[in-house]
Specification:
Length: 340
């Protein structure tokens, strides 16, 4: 991913919401990441405590409590950047910063058609940029536009068309702001599913991809649907053990609903059983692994490893990563921002 950024003059700002790990972030920084995104104030606090700076929090912080934590965080990260999508939020943020005697940089968040966060129209975006520029304790830096609804479109042409439509509208907005002498210095967005398209569009200045660092079934399926190998290797697996093997055709393992994020379908067998085996959720702490006819059935105590359906929320279920090279455990890393 870093090489991709270098080749296309695109800064890589990985999203910590994927891995929630200071150790993984340090490896990404060593590989060339310019800084990091965080989805929550808790993730940003973890990263700042670990010595990272120029953090971007990609969801609006609303209310005195969260804004107060962000203001306190500027003691560790003077280059902290927030997003706003509403004048009332911007005004409260500026007022509380003024009371504390600090200034905070902001990006105006633009809705790409997802209707989750972001100003809802180009006119509203221009008006909010003008308003943010008028506030004494905010530093307007640019725009954020993350098209999360586009990332997992499996049809390659449809994904490209949808992503380029978002980038085209964003380009027009940037041109309108430039005409007002409000050109955005930072244009942040994009993701693992559109990283090639984002470069082709040549609108963004930085890429917020996150899942590429470990991958999951959802993203693997994006490329598999087009008969292509995934561009990034899978590095995240959940290991389970067979705890019951009393019936022909299937075994029961100790990984169920509580071990996988279930919004992305079912885990896929990676090791320890026939790759043609199928997993089914079998309870909170149980999974059924159905072996195809003629294939050996894993025995009691056998270890089965799975590629997870959706990496971000699955990681948030665990306290630690067990880092394995070959068949050797080489490190144990905490999931530092689990639950925050």
């Amino acid at each position: 991913m870093s090489k991709h950024g270098q080749d296309h003059d695109l800064a890589i700002r990985p999203h910590v919401k994927c891995h929630k790990s200071a150790q993984i972030a340090a490896l990404q920084r060593a590989a060339g990441a310019m800084s990091f995104c965080c989805a929550t104030i808790g993730e940003a606090e973890m990263m700042a405590a670990a010595g990272f700076t120029s953090i971007l929090i990609t969801s609006p912080l609303v209310g005195e409590d969260k804004i107060g934590r962000a203001i306190a965080l500027t003691q560790l990260d003077a280059q902290l950047c927030l997003v706003v999508d509403n004048p009332a939020n911007a005004a409260q943020l500026s007022d509380l910063c003024a009371l504390a005697g600090v200034s905070i940089d902001v990006l105006v968040d633009v809705d790409p058609g997802m209707h989750r966060t972001g100003v809802a129209s180009q006119i509203a975006a221009i008006e909010l940029v003008g308003y943010v520029r008028s506030l004494p304790s905010l530093g307007y830096q640019g725009l954020q536009c993350y098209a999360g609804h586009v990332q997992h479109i499996e049809d390659a042409e449809a994904r490209q068309e949808a992503s380029l439509a978002v980038m085209g509208a964003l380009r027009v907005l940037c041109e309108e702001l430039k005409a007002l002498d409000w050109a955005p210095a930072v244009i942040s967005g994009g993701g693992t599913g559109t990283y090639l398209i984002d470069a082709q569009a040549a609108v963004l200045t930085e890429l917020q991809a996150g899942s590429y660092v470990v991958m999951d079934n959802q993203y693997n399926n994006v490329w598999a649907a087009n008969a292509l190998p995934p561009p990034f290797d899978v590095a995240l697996f959940v290991q389970s053990a067979v705890i019951s093997a009393n019936h022909p055709g299937h075994v029961t393992c100790d990984a169920g609903f509580k071990h996988f994020a279930v919004d992305g379908g079912r885990p896929v067998v990676a090791r320890g059983a026939s790759l043609a085996s199928e997993y089914e959720y079998f309870g909170d702490v149980h999974g059924l692994v159905r072996t195809p006819p003629g294939q050996p059935q894993p025995g009691l105590g056998a270890r089965i490893e799975f590629v997870v359906p959706h990496c971000d929320p699955t990681i948030n279920l665990y306290d630690q990563y067990h880092c394995v090279r070959g068949d050797q455990l080489v490190a144990i890393w905490p999931v530092d921002a689990r639950g925050v």
